[in-house]
What we know:
By secondary structure, the chain is mainly α.
Amino acid sequence: xxxxxxxxxxxxxxxxxxxxxxxxxxxxxxxxxxxxxxxxxxxxxxxxxxxxxxxxxxxxxxxxxxxxxxxxxxxxxxxxxxxxxxxxxxxxxxxxxxxxxxxxxxxxxxxxxxxxxxxxxxxxxxxxxxxxxxxxxxxxxxxxxxxxxxxxxxxxxxxxxxxxxxxxxxxxxxxxxxxxxxxxxxxxxxxxxxxxxxxxxxxxxxxxxxxxxxxxxxxxxxxxxxxxxxxxxxxxxxxxxxxxxxxxxxxxxxxxxxxxxxxxxxxxxxxxxxxxxxxxxxxxxxxxxxxxx
Length: 293
C-alpha cells in the first residue's frame, strides 16, 4: 500500500524547498486545533507531557493491534520511560489519574485489584488519529504521495502507525532535549503554539544564526486570550527568548533570530522524518495483518 512512498532523513528534509510549505500546513492546522481545544492540546504541548502521552499511546495502540501486548499501566509506562530523567514514578501516577479524571483514558475491568490497566477513550483515539493525519497531510505537501488519502480510506493503518511513530520519537534524544534556542518554549504548555506563531511567516531558510528575521506577531495579551492563559505567562516566555537574543522588537515590529528558526526547522524535520518512516512501516504491518485475518 505504501508503494514507493518516500522515507526522509531529517537534515535532508529540512533543506527541501517544499519543507516550509509542509511546516506551514501542519502548524496552521495544529494552531487551529489548539484554539478549538486548548485543554486537550495541553497533554502534548510541552516536552514532558508529550513524552508521557506518546508513551501511553504506544502501549495502548500496540495492544490495540496485538491483544497479547502489555497493557497501559503505571508500571509499564514507567518502564517505557525509565531512561528519561524528566519523568518519575510519581509523575506517571499523577499523570494517569489526571487524564482519567478528564475522561481521556478508561480503566479496564479486571480481577486483580492490585493492577490497574487503562485504555484510551474513543475521543483520545480520534484526537491522535487527527494529529497523525495532519502530519501525513503536511508530508503530502512535499511529494504528493497521497498518504492522507490512504489513511482516510483505511484509518486502521493509524492504529499500527501510532506505536511505531511513538517509539521513534521516544528514542530521539534531539526531540526530548531540544536546542537551547527553542527550549524555553517547547518545555511549556502554551509555548509550542507561540513558537508556531513566531515562525509561521518565515518564507525562506535563514542565511545564518545571527540573522534577524522580521515577523508578524500578535501581542502577549492577544495570545493569552487565544490560548486561555495569563498575559504574564506569555510575557515571561517571550522575555526568556529575548534574553537569549533570539527575539526582540523594534519600531518596525518583531524579529526572531536565524538560529531559532534553524533549530526549530531541524527539530520539526526530525518529527516529520519519523512520520515518514512510521507510515511506511504501518502500511506493511496493516497489509500483513489483513492477509492473516
